[in-house]
Amino acid sequence: MFKIADQVISLDRLKINGRVHRLARRLTITVEHEDDRLILSDEEFGLVVSATTLEEGIAGISDELSMLWEVYVDEDPANLTPDAICLRNNLTSLVPAGVIL
């Protein structure tokens, strides 16, 4: 049986909270093939999504980032730990304010 090598894709826009945002920098996603599924992951934000198609996986990555945005960016920074503030800053640098497609 053949094993397909891991691939890396680069995303320049994502749907977050129902809106498509152009990213300030590309988000690098590793795509692994495991049996009949794809595993998409991103080390920077600790994202891991299992999907049957690449489109489904990218939508899952968008959903995960939306959830992180809601938890860390929409929250009052006074309520966040120092590590959470670093993650918040990383998220806001990825998705600049006002850049909606």
Helix content: 25-40%
End-to-end C-alpha gap:
43 Å
Low-confidence segments: none
Structural class: alpha+beta
Shape call: elongated
Arithmetic mean pLDDT: 88
What's the number of extended β-strand segments?
4
Please write the string of helix (H) and strand (E) elements.
EEEEHH
Query: What proportion strand?
Result: 35-45%
Rg calc: 15 Å
Total helices: the number is 2
Biggest sheet statistics: 4 strands, antiparallel
Strand order of the largest sheet: 1-2-3-4
Q: Could you explain the architecture of this structure?
A:
- It is a single chain.
- The chain contains 2 helices and 4 strands.
- Strand 3 and strand 4 form a beta hairpin.
- The radius of gyration is 15 Å and the shape is elongated.
- The mean pLDDT is 88.
- The protein is α+β, with helices and mostly antiparallel strands and 101 residues long.
- Helix 1 crosses helix 2.
- The chain has a 4-stranded antiparallel beta sheet, covered by helices on one side.
Which descriptors apply to this entry?
single chain; alpha+beta; four-stranded antiparallel beta sheet; 2 helices
Short description:
With 101 residues, this protein is α+β, with helices and mostly antiparallel strands. Helix content is 33%, strand content 37%.
Describe the secondary-structure layout.
Elements: E1 7-16, E2 19-34, E3 37-42, E4 47-51, H1 54-73, H2 82-94
Antiparallel strand pairs: 1-2, 2-3, 3-4
Helix pairs in contact: 1-2
